[in-house]
Design a protein that fits this description.
- Helix content is 31%, strand content 16%.
- Strand 1 and strand 2 form a beta hairpin.
- It has a domain of 66 residues.
- The chain contains four helices and four strands; from the N terminus they run E-E-H-H-E-H-H-E.
- It holds the Pfam family Transposase_1.
- This is Mariner Mos1 transposase.
C-alpha cells in the first residue's frame, strides 16, 4: 500500500512500517458467573487442552467456587461451555455428573443464534 501524502521531490521518503507476526500465543481459560470472574488460568505454553488437562482445570474451578461462591457450592451450579473436543469426552461428562454439576449444552452453530442472544 502506498502512502497518500504529498511531498516535495526533495523531501525524504516516508518510512513504511513492517508487519511482524507475534511469536507469542497465550491461551486463557476463564469461568465467570453473572457478577465476577470466578476462576481463570493461563494454559502453559505447549500444553494441549485435552481431556485430562480439562478435568484438572474443572477441579480447580470447583475449588474456586467453593471458596468464592459457597452458596453455589452447596446448591449446585450450572456450567455452560462449547462443544470443543475436550469438553465432550465421556470422562469429562462423567466427572461433571458425579459432582452434580448441571451442564448447559451449547446449541449447534447457527448464524441467527449467537451465545449473546439468550
Amino acid at each position: 500500500m502506498q502512502s497518500s501524502e504529498w511531498h516535495t521531490t526533495s523531501s525524504p521518503r516516508p518510512k513504511k512500517s513492517r508487519h511482524v507476526k507475534s511469536k507469542k500465543i497465550v491461551m486463557l481459560i476463564a469461568f465467570f458467573d453473572n457478577e465476577v470472574v470466578v476462576h481463570h488460568e493461563f494454559v502453559p505454553a505447549g500444553q494441549i487442552v485435552n481431556c485430562p488437562f480439562y478435568v484438572q482445570v474443572l477441579k480447580r474451578l470447583r475449588e474456586a467456587i467453593r471458596r468464592k461462591r459457597p452458596a453455589k457450592w452447596q446448591g449446585g451450579w450450572p456450567l455452560h461451555h462449547d462443544n470443543g473436543p475436550s469438553h465432550t469426552w465421556i470422562v469429562v461428562q462423567t466427572w461433571l455428573a458425579e459432582k452434580n454439576i448441571l451442564l448447559l449444552h451449547q446449541p449447534a452453530y447457527s448464524p441467527d443464534l449467537a451465545p449473546s442472544d439468550f
